[in-house]
Amino acid sequence: MTVTVRFAPSPTGNIHIGNARTALFNWLFAMKHKGRFIQRFDDTDLARSKQEYANAILYDLHWLGIYPDQTEYQSRRFDRYDAAVERLKAAGVLYPCYETPEELELRRKIRLSQKLPPVYGREALALTPDEVAAFEAEGRKPHWRFLLPNFADDPANPVRTELSWQDIVRGDETVDLASLSDPVLVREDGTYLYTLPSVVDDIEMGVTHVIRGDDHVTNTGVQIALFRALGAEPPTFGHHNLLTTVSGEGLSKRTGALSIASLRDDGIEPMAVASLAVLTGTSENIEAVGTMSELADRFDPAAVSKSAAKFDPAELLTLNHSLLHAMPFSEAQDRLAVLGVTGDKAEPLWLAVRGNIDKVQDAVTWWRIINEPLPEAPDLDDEDREYVRGAFDLLPEEPWDRSTWQQWTAAVKEATGRKGKQLFLPLRLAMTGRSSGPELAELLPLIGREEMLARRP
Ligand SMILES: Nc1ncnc2c1ncn2[C@@H]1O[C@H](COP(=O)(O)OP(=O)(O)OP(=O)(O)O)[C@@H](O)[C@H]1O
């Protein structure tokens, strides 16, 4: 059977780094097993879901390097969910309830005071046809609950109440269905809660592995029961830990914190985001991994820890820095061109500066330094100014290349007796206006003789 996974966000905002972790875990799992990745939008909440958010999510996934094999929208599949409802009703495991939220709350309090678990007491199962007719006459509409197979105390139905699964992240997991209320699958207004559409789709789309955040662990027992009620074998489950902000706050699409779009706009490389989103909160070392297939090799669901993990965006810059250091010009070229870094000098400039920058756009600073007059005269004392003047008088004739620096500084050394920092630092300041940066041997031919002479202090 082909391994089939899905990523199922609601298109109600921009995805954040936590959502990206789920998407990446699924993508890497599919890569590892030569499987399929389904992008499925949980857009049954028609009021909050928007196509523009779905498009933005697809864009973010592509940017990260995730290319779904199939894209589905739950809002286009209501007929499937309606059919499943009819099957469950016919099987007698979906029953109408008429309680208002206030009535349910009152019952819950009474159960608690009686030291009973605060779950739904299935009172609706005992309603007579007359009582139902009376509710309907009042204008009440039913919501529909799924009858969980948890009748352990009923000798006529000796069903085990505990449901277990082997979680590919968390290991053995057990949920006692007796501790749960029969879940509502359909609301009064006929709309669906997340549970039924998700299970119906997983069955019909042949999902073999459900990999998602551990915010869903408690739903899994109910879902396994629902798979069985619909005549299907449940898939394998894997629940990974959630990512939080550095201060430990949860993430939500609604707040926009740590959104993939904001990290992209900030100039962070996709593989820096992917590396940190996947390796944080695992026993793996955190480092920038260059390609998705290398990350797939590093990815091990069993190495994921069980507790929530803090996502520190400051670490992204370190990873970004090391990715840029190794990035060939061909990969940076288009983005540099958009930033105005084009022409013959673009490649040598990139190769000169890539080890000294945190973000691609930082190359522009160096592009200006080699191409435009320096904005300010360098900060040199009188002695150094005299030294630099003399040194600039020794600049060789063009053509210049990488060896020119060596040739020039050898002559300066011989003429002045200076060496080391005393020799180089004033030259660096005069050439670039900065006390640190890329190799001067690389920058010198890019600045060129004419502009160098213009910088003679
Ligand atoms: N902080 C997080 N860390 C890791 N995974 C998360 C995090 N938040 C959500 N997920 C996972 O992302 C997937 C999509 O979830 P969903 O669309 O419900 O996102 P959400 O951000 O939790 O929702 P909301 O739109 O309510 O903010 C789910 O599998 C969920 O487990």
Automatic annotation (TrEMBL):
Domain of life, per lineage: Bacteria
Annotated Gene3D superfamilies: 1.10.10.350, HUPs
Main location: cytoplasm
Reaction(s) catalysed (UniProt annotation): tRNA(Glu) + L-glutamate + ATP = L-glutamyl-tRNA(Glu) + AMP + diphosphate
A GO biological process held by the record: glutamyl-tRNA aminoacylation
Coiled-coil residues: none
One Pfam family, short name: Anticodon_2
UniProt motif ('KMSKS' region) ranges: 250-254
Compartments (UniProt record): Cytoplasm
Subunit-structure text: Monomer.
Full protein name: Glutamate--tRNA ligase
Organism expressing this protein natively: Pseudaminobacter soli
Gene: gltX
